[in-house]
Amino acid sequence: MSLFRKRSIDKLLQDSQKGRSLKRDLGTWDLTLLGIGAIIGTGIFVLTGQGSVTAGPGLILSFIISAIACGLAALAYAEFAALVPISGSAYTYSYATLGEFVAWIIGWDLVLEYLLATSTVSVGWSGYFQNLLQGLFGWQLPTALTGAPGAKEGAIFNLPAFLIVMVITFLLSRGITESKRTNNVMVAIKVTVVLLFIAVGANYVKPDNWQPFLPFGASGVMDAAAMVFFAYIGFDAVAAAAEETKNPARDLPRGLIFSLGICTLLYIIVTGIMTGIVPFGDFKGVDHPISLALQVAGQDWMAGVVDLGAILGMTTVMLVMLYGQTRIFFSMSRDGLLPRRFSKVHPKFQTPFGATWFLGIVAGLIGGFVPLDRLAELVNIGTLAAFTLVSVGVLVLRKTQPNLKRPFRTPLVPFVPLAAIAACIFLMSRLAAITWIAFVIWLVIGLLIYFTYSKRHSTLNKD
User: Fold this and answer.
1) 3-state secondary structure of 287
2) Three-state SS at 8
3) Where are the bilayer-spanning segments (predicted)?
4) Using an 8 Å Cβ cutoff, are 318 and 125 in contact?
5) Contact predicate 63/264, CB 8 Å
6) What is the rounded distance in angstroms from the CA atom of residue 287 to the CA atom of residue 283?
7) Please, is 231 exposed, middle or buried when counting C-beta atoms within 10 Å of its C-beta (0-12, 13-18, 19+)?
8) Distances in Å between the alpha carbon of 201 and those of 184, 217, 298?
9) Tens of pLDDT along 403-413?
10) What is the pLDDT of residues 52-62, one digit of tens each?
11) C-alpha gyration radius of the chain
């Protein structure tokens, strides 16, 4: 039964105040922008093109389906985040409700999600950045430093991908206030770019391009929904900021729901305009669909602005992903499941300094050396598994501790959590077999670490 020993919520709150706590500096607005910073990036600037090839103009429905799955899970996240305002997100919630073994699995799962998401986006950022350098200044990096081995002929190391992760790591290590300000400015710029695209592109929409609306039927819509789910990954990183939020009971639910709602609306509008300008088949093999739509419309000047917005968009995604990663690592270390050095807080910056630099360097090296082709799906399956367990956790806690004071309550329990579980499992079922195999391998590695180190060094084991 030691596998399912639980941390009491009161004990979690007490332990978070014993010298290893983080600075509280985030409000509703900051959390909303943190969520938007994580969501609007690769999804809107890259995956819209791939998704339209799979679903046609019906990609709008794919985004809605993915948003519903995320929205249902967000309501479960909001209850836990307000109840347990501690770093660690789904890992911490699982520890309090489902036990240590499940918490380790979900924490290890989230390590995969955030780490590979950061690395994946850094490679996309590198491509846009190199195009911008070439277009503005005519500069071209040596081929050896433009990609990972195997990504292109002569490539050895993706230097821009590595360097951007190092810059973000430096920002995060300096403190949440500096990271917050940087994120807020970049989010404001990239949202402005998206709104400019909507304002300009709406004038060039040809409704005939929306016919047929479902060229590949419902199956194409569902396959695209599993793919573009990556576009929403990151909103759950808002929950990881619980310990640095001024008023978690009020601000966290608002930040989660507001950021998800705003981004879903933008995705729907942008997808409709994009597929209205360019026939969906023309997006095959295109990694800059929004720029392509503007070029087809004859608005080349705006296409350059979009490229800049894409760079900023991906930067904020990496910032929030690496931020969430470090907070989960911090929580797992504080609980004894990882070496204690990862939960040491810098006396001046009040950040998990060592964990931030360790994870930043690992993410940077992965982006520099590994060509990342199918990692979007691998990140998706990890996130969907986390969402499923959080929803299960709400059901368990409502049954085992019904009288807990809940500042925010998930509505219509058990129907909303059950619907979230069903939606997430359905989307997981649409992912490729190779994705499941890689996911199982990662979990096996995690089990070996748990039984050889974490179980013995757990704080609960010592207690």
Assistant:
1) coil
2) coil
3) 26-47, 59-78, 155-173, 185-204, 216-235, 256-281, 301-324, 349-372, 378-397, 409-428, 434-453
4) yes
5) yes
6) 8
7) buried
8) 26, 27, 10
9) 888 888 889 99
10) 888 999 999 99
11) 21
Asked if residues 175 and 164 have their Cβ atoms less than 8 Å apart, the reply is no
How far is it, in rounded angstroms, from Cα 67 to Cα 266?
A: 12
Angle in degrees, CA 244, 247, 250, rounded to 5: 125
- The amino acid present at 50, given as its one-letter code, is Q
Task: Please name the helix (run of DSSP H) or strand (run of DSSP E) that holds residue 216, with its range, or none.
Answer: none
Residue type, 190: K
* Integer Cα distance of 247 and 213 in angstroms: 45
Q: Report DSSP letters for 408-453, one per residue.
A: S--TTTTHHHHHHHHHHHHHHHTS-HHHHHHHHHHHHHHHHHIIII
Quick one: CA dihedral 150, 153, 157, 160, positive or negative? negative
The pTM score is: 0.78
% helix, strand, coil for the chain, step of 5: 75, 0, 20
Q: Which of 303, 301, 357 is nearest to 326 (CA)?
A: 357
Separation CA 80–CA 239 (nearest Å): 9
pLDDT > 80? residue 259: yes
In this structure, the number of other CB atoms found within 10 A of the CB of residue 452 comes to 9
Record the tokens describing residue 456, joined without a space: 């013995």
